[in-house]
Amino acid sequence: MKEKKSITKQETKDKQKTKLKKLLSAKYTKLLPKVGEIVEGEVINISPNAVHLDIKGIATGVVRGYELFDESGEYSNLKVGDKVSATVLELENENGEIELSFRCAGHEKAWEKLKELMEKGEVVTVTVTSANKGGLMVRLNRITGFLPVSQLAPEHYPRVEGGSKNKILERLKKFVNKKLKVKIIDVSKEEKKLIVSERETIKEKEKEKISKYKVGDIVEGEISGLVDFGAFLKFDDGLEGLIHLSELDWQRIEHPREVVKVGQKVKAKIISIDDSRVSFSLKQLKEDPWKKASEKYKIGQKVKGKIIKINPFGLFVELDEKIHGLCHISEIPPEIKKELNKKIKENDTLEFKILSLEPENHRLGLTLKLKEKKTKSS
Q1: Residue 62 CB neighbour total at 10 angstroms
Q2: Residues 303-324 pLDDT 10s
Q3: Backbone phi, psi, residue 122, to 5°
Q4: Which domains, from first to last, does the chain contain?
Q5: Largest Cα–Cα separation, the chain
Q6: Angstrom distance (rounded) from CA 122 to CA 118
Q7: How many helices (H) and strands (E) does the chain have?
Q8: How many angstroms separate the Cα of 230 from the Cα of each of 160, 242, 249, 275, 327?
């Protein structure tokens, strides 16, 4: 009987040990991180191809190979004892260690940092790595971003007459390997999108200077550049605005060079202020010739006009230096329309008849159908 009682006690002890082992194992498992989780660890060993970390005193982790690459740049000069973050890739590798990644953790931190910089509106320095027809590719904290042409500072904007994309690209290539001060204007980790702006860095200074102006003010400045869509006007110690093609003159023009040239001093009227962008008009400081058009021209009147442009939808005609009209394609006789470019050339002078006159809209309609069809009497 005594022997039987002794066996029972041993079995009880064994059961208690097994139960305690299970409890300890469960508690240990709960302490272990999950795959994908970012954990904190202390560097305990560094070799050329791997870094070992002590994870909360419960396990050893290892970062090796490609996973050592870090976009945030925080792990470039590690030493034993440093506290670092890493992403869990596997809970147990072939050596019983937790497989970790600086690359994943660094990726997360790098994009979080970019978002933080954008929200704070901080100015950062980027390096231009390449150029394309739309702008510049830049590098910031090991992440590639884009600086669109429209977001360049005025002094860096490629003003190319004719809008040649190849010439624009040539100008942009001059920035490669240069450093620029920018602000982040759009960032998305999911889309791997980083958009920066050089213009935003000077926006506040520009707004402060522009605040003393209002719509309707007349300023004096210098034409600083010509592009297909207008002319740039530099005024007030470095500020710059745009005179759109349609605001250069009352008559229709093909290119700003017909009215102004670079370096020319002009007076212009402010017609809009949008944040730090100022738009000007030259024509609003000139007398509108259309106000007196009704005194000179009448509907039904026969007039001579010079062809200044031939388009698929008709002919642009100069009646005098200030008044231009349109002869729509439907108002050209069929025998001429069939071979329009052979029968009519630019600078030809032809006789037209005025079909419509709208001085308030700066429109004058013409016809080449001068001979009226005879109607058959019933």
Answers
A1: 20
A2: 999 999 898 889 999 999 889 9
A3: -75, 145
A4: 39-108 (2.40.50.140), 121-202 (2.40.50.140), 212-285 (2.40.50.140), 290-367 (2.40.50.140)
A5: 144
A6: 7
A7: 7, 20
A8: 11, 7, 11, 20, 26
